[in-house]
Amino acid sequence: MTLDEYILSHSEPEGDYLHQLWRATNIHTIHGRMASGHLQGRLLKMFVEMIRPQHILEVGTFSGYSAICMAEGLKELSKDTTAGEQPTRKLYTFEINDEMEDFTRPWIDGSDVADYIDFRIGDAMTLAPQLGISFDMAFVDGDKRTYRDCYEMVLKILRPGGFILADNTLWDGHVVDPAYDKDKQTHGIEDFNDFIARDPRVEQVILPVRDGLTLIRKR
Ligand SMILES: C[S@@+](CC[C@H](N)C(=O)[O-])C[C@H]1O[C@@H](n2cnc3c(N)ncnc32)[C@H](O)[C@@H]1O
To answer: Which residue's CA is minimally distant from atom 1 of ligand 1?
Structure first.
């Protein structure tokens, strides 16, 4: 047994539905590995249960894997809503690639957490601020070339004390590999990492999970 197998066999199972979605994503899409997968999916769900957000924003739905995981956390929270909390928690997730809609929407609608997900096709950069919502948590997982712009957009609509989770911030280790110095996506991630490391508006820590997941708290 490998260490990865050991970790997964001692973490909450992803469940049949998500496992089927993971398989379908890898069979029917070119970049299937973009989906969060078992370990990160369970971590996202756990973060939702810890942060207890009313409103979550996701930039980059892709096949819906991470959206369903976070919505599972919202559903779990709705079972034990404490005094002062509203029961209507929601994840707003945006996907800019309209070709994904035919694949993703049935998977979201067919899940048992569909009521917790508002899936929209379009550019989160312009559409998310138009919602007029103050978010408690955001999962940033869109275009790596413009991560810093996306961060600024999200920070504006995140409440003080809210959390941003930014995915792929180690980018396969390319952030410390000179061979990737001219790669625009690596540059985008490096620029983002350097910027937030000295941004006084936030606290931040990079978790070396999967491809790097940065936790950011707005002061
Ligand atoms: C890494 S995938 C998302 C994976 C998904 N969050 C998961 O973990 O299962 C990134 C997705 O972001 C989408 N995207 C990139 N820029 C975007 C934007 N500005 N607004 C909405 N979606 C965007 C891409 O089309 C792509 O499908």
So the answer is: 34
Its pTM stands at 0.96
CA 71 vs. chain centroid, Å, equals 11
Q: In what order do the strands lie in the sheet with 117-121?
A: 117-121, 90-95, 55-59, 135-140, 158-167, 213-218, 202-207
Average pLDDT over residues 174-191: 94
Task: Give the mutation target among 19, 47, 96, 167 for probing the ligand 1 site: most ligand atoms within 8 A of CB.
Answer: 96
**What atom of ligand 1 comes closest to residue 93's alpha carbon?**
21
Q: If we measure between CA atoms, which residue out of 152, 100, 90, 99 comes closest to residue 125?
A: 152
Are 15 and 23 a contacting pair, CB within 8 Å?
no
Task: Using pLDDT thresholds of 50, 70 and 90, give the confidence band for residue 80.
Answer: confident
Query: Per residue in 101-113, pLDDT tens?
Result: 999 999 999 999 9
Q: How many Å lie between the centroid of ligand 1 and the Cα of residue 81?
A: 30
Share of the chain above pLDDT 70, in %: 97
- Mark 161-187 as b/e (b = at least 16 C-beta within 10 Å): ebbbbbbbbbbeebbeeeebeebebbb
Answer yes or no: is the C-beta of 25 below 6 A from any ligand 1 atom: no
Q: For tokens 């930014």, what's the residue?
A: 166
Q: What's phi and psi for 179, nearest 5 deg?
A: -65, -20
Q: What is the DSSP letter of 32?
A: G
